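Progress note, sequence design subtask.
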């Protein structure tokens, strides 16, 4: 056995022991494993190979509360293995219940005083890495009470980029859950993110990119989108986009510009957002910037996203259009004086005559999202009643064209349907029972298809 396997077996044995001095042994073994992982590529491959129980042993050790002192070393091992292996083993950690363990450790570490910043960075980096592999991480974070830890850390030290960046990555993962997005928005995460994304600065562009992605995910919630509109953030987003468009002459920060457009696209999903976009002269801004981007092929994503936003926000009118908005004029033969068409003809050219009722029932959005989340929480015991599982009911019913009594007249022509497969007497035209030859010895072999 290799040295790594021996150390892991020692660590597994220490987990089962409760004798005095086990803590010192666990710390010693953990430091040796971390040293091997950091110094030898062979050890990393061995720990992540198929069939290896290394991750299971580490997670089991992290669950033992008496070994919290060695948690940092084991988390560093997991972090180093996942970062060096490209996250290929992230799904293994999720399958072994690693998400729940890491969230519990995060909650325990947040109560320490003073706060261990290095441990917080490692925990958030791991959660951000395995988060996309676990569809229930948002629900687990809310149930464990770890949902607001990352938000509080960002609030406390907004200028600490080393800590804020992984925290925002975790918040981005949490925000994919609709209930979490509404809850985080009520606690001021939208206002906090706008402090990070503006004004224009080429410093810490990676942090701004993650902040924009998180904001775009949060604004998909109509509650957060209305909050952003009420605070005038649509105008702020357009100003930020124009600022980056003017300064990014070499098109090196296309992803940041696209992130701003994604935020605008999310906030214009509601009627108030579209109205605020029109009032902020957004149509002209996106049209002019898109014209400048047409000559550069790599900026096609910006043009496409801008086109989607403009098409969504452009005022809608019913036909016929007697204004300059339409290239065609449809002349109706008869137009009643007091009818709806005559009223539409008398409207000013810039009036949107199509009533948008898409957001009239948004006040109950939070309750419906919470109910949907509660349904998702029970998905393990969920049974879809709409899916029929009875095979007998799934078989098509064959309806007879005639009654059984009428069909019995044809029974004599098809005796094989009503009689057993027996030898027929050709003289009496009646079946006779099959009697095997007494001279035959051994089993009777029935020839299969294709045999002579």
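Output:
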């Amino acid at each position: 056995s290799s040295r790594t396997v021996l150390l892991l077996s020692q660590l597994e044995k220490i987990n089962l022991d409760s004798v005095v001095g086990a803590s010192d042994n666990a710390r010693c073994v953990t430091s040796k494993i971390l040293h091997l992982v950091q110094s030898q590529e062979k050890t990393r491959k061995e720990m992540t190979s198929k069939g290896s129980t290394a991750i299971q042993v580490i997670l089991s050790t992290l669950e033992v509360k008496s070994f919290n002192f060695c948690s940092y070393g084991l988390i560093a091992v997991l972090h180093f293995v996942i970062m060096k292996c490209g996250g290929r083993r992230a799904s293994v950690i999720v399958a072994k219940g690693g998400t729940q363990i890491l969230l519990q450790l995060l909650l325990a570490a947040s109560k320490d005083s003073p706060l261990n910043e290095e441990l917080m960075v490692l925990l958030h980096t791991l959660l951000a890495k395995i988060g996309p592999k676990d569809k229930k991480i948002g629900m687990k974070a809310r149930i464990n009470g770890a949902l607001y830890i990352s938000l509080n850390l960002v609030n406390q030290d907004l200028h600490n980029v080393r800590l804020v960046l992984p925290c925002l990555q975790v918040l981005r993962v949490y925000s994919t859950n609709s209930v979490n997005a509404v809850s985080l928005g009520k606690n001021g995460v939208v206002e906090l993110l706008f402090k990070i994304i503006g004004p224009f600065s080429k410093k810490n562009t990676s942090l701004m990119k993650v902040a924009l992605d998180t904001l775009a995910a949060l604004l998909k919630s109509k509650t957060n989108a209305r909050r952003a509109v009420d605070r005038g953030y649509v105008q702020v987003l357009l100003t930020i986009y124009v600022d980056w468009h003017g300064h990014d002459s070499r098109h090196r920060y296309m992803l940041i510009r696209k992130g701003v457009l994604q935020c605008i696209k999310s906030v214009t999903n509601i009627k108030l957002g579209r109205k605020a976009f029109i009032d902020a002269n957004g149509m002209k801004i996106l049209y002019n910037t898109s014209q400048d981007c047409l000559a550069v092929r790599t900026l096609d994503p910006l043009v496409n996203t801008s086109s989607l936003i403009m098409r969504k926000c452009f005022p809608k009118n019913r036909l016929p259009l007697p204004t300059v908005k339409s290239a065609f004029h449809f002349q109706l033969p008869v137009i009643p004086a007091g009818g709806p068409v005559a009223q539409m003809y008398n409207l000013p050219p810039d009036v949107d005559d199509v009533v948008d009722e898409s957001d009239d029932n948004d006040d109950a959005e939070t309750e419906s999202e919470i109910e949907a989340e509660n349904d998702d929480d029970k998905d393990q015991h969920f049974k879809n009643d709409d899916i029929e599982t009875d095979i007998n009911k799934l078989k098509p019913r064959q309806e007879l064209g005639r009654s059984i009594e009428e069909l019995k007249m044809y029974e004599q022509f098809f005796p094989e349907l009503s009689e057993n497969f027996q030898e027929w007497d050709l003289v009496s035209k009646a079946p006779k029972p099959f009697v095997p030859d007494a001279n035959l010895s051994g089993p009777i072999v029935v020839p299969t298809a294709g045999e002579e």
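The first helix runs from residue 3 to 16. Work on this subtask will continue into the next period as scheduled.
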